[in-house]
Amino acid sequence: MKPSPPPGPSPENRELATASDTAAAVQAALGTEHAAVWCYGLLVAFLPPALDRLARQDATAHRARRDFISRTLADAGVPPIAAEPGYRTPNTVVDQASAIHLAISAEADAAAAWRSVLERCDDPALRRVALEGLTDAAVRGAQWAARSETAPVVPTFPGRT
Fold first, then answer.
1. N or C: which end of the chain has fewer CB within 10 A?
2. Helix %, strand %, coil % for the chain, to 5?
3. How far is CA 140 from the centre of its chain?
4. Omega cis (within 30) before 80
5. Which has the closest alpha carbon to 96: 42, 23, 158, 24?
6. What's the CA gap between 124 and 82, in Å, rounded?
7. Residues 116-150: pLDDT tens digits?
8. Where do the domains of the chain lie, and which CATH numbers do they carry?
9. What are the tens digits of pLDDT across the range 69-109?
């Protein structure tokens, strides 16, 4: 008895399997989710207990989106990229202020990556995931920016680099 072949991509994942620019954008977004999880692991060490819960919630949100996208890519027959062992931060993290700025940067990177997915796909389900990723990152970034007195708290066009 021969084993049955693996199932093909589901209709909602077909674009990932056939459109290389879409798959590349989703892989890049996955990379920013990996980086965000790593960044939150670093910055939580520099935050006071009052901000610890928020940082852990944000890390959990990135972890959930990362895992979902990894499964989506795998289901489409596209091997998801792996996390790097470490990431270069835009600035050295040494205190609460620099930790908050790292959170803002991680969220800005995630928003830009999900905006890129929106620009490169036509699939309604994938566009919904990308829009949620962009929106969630913009909201989280605004929450952190408000704590650092960064202006504007919300960029004019979230995700635009």
1. N
2. 70, 0, 30
3. 11
4. no
5. 42
6. 26
7. 999 999 889 999 999 999 999 999 999 999 998 77
8. 18-77+87-148 (1.20.1260.10)
9. 999 999 999 999 999 999 999 999 999 999 999 999 999 99
